[in-house]
Amino acid sequence: MASREVSTMIKQGFIADSSLSFSPSRTTSPAKFSTASPPPPLPPPPSNESTHSNPTLFDMMSDEHNREPRKKSHARVAQILTEFKSGVVYGHSLGPSDVKLTVVGKDGYKVTMDVHRKVLSEKSRFFMEKMNPRREKGVSHMVEISECDDVEIYVETVVLMYCDDLKNKLIGVNVIKVLALLKVSS
């Protein structure tokens, strides 16, 4: 390609090369160009600290967009836990809980529940393998599930393990939510 074609392509943005700049008032002789040292390195990009200390309008709007669903989800989790703790969700007389289950979301939101090993291991292969009753009798367990996409769905899945009639419990529930519950349950 001829030098002029390259210059035109750079000006029009087809070739992005910061070391090549075109200025009609400046010309470079071929001898000078071959002996010139490489251009100095570009300055490092600004650190993330400055972007976090001075958020842009877009950042603030994005955060606001995420804040409302987060508040609703936290309120829903609080409601589920209140019903669960008061015994409205299950009528079993299992005695005191022997498992402290903590569910942690990717955003750091953390929920801790006091649950029963018997229920978890009967309803979930995952918990059955984690808390084998033959291995440790009379020992209370602490289980943490980290990096969850949706803490509400995980908490609700655990609560549903206490329900005897899932069909009646899930009638009228949003299909997307049922699919999310099934995904976590599998």
Automatic annotation (TrEMBL):
Pathway given for this chain reads: Protein modification; protein ubiquitination
Species this protein is from: Noccaea caerulescens
The processes (GO biological process) annotated in the record are: protein ubiquitination
PANTHER family referenced in this protein's UniProt entry, alphabetically: BTB_POZ DOMAIN PLANT PROTEIN, OSJNBA0011J08.25 PROTEIN-RELATED
Designated name of the protein: BTB/POZ domain-containing protein
Q: What is the taxonomic lineage of the source species? A: Eukaryota, Viridiplantae, Streptophyta, Embryophyta, Tracheophyta
Task: Locate the compositionally biased regions of type Pro residues.
Answer: 37-47
Comp. bias (Low complexity): 19-30
- According to the record, the residues making up region (Disordered) are 19-72
* Every BTB domain range: 97-170
**Superkingdom to which the source organism belongs:** Eukaryota
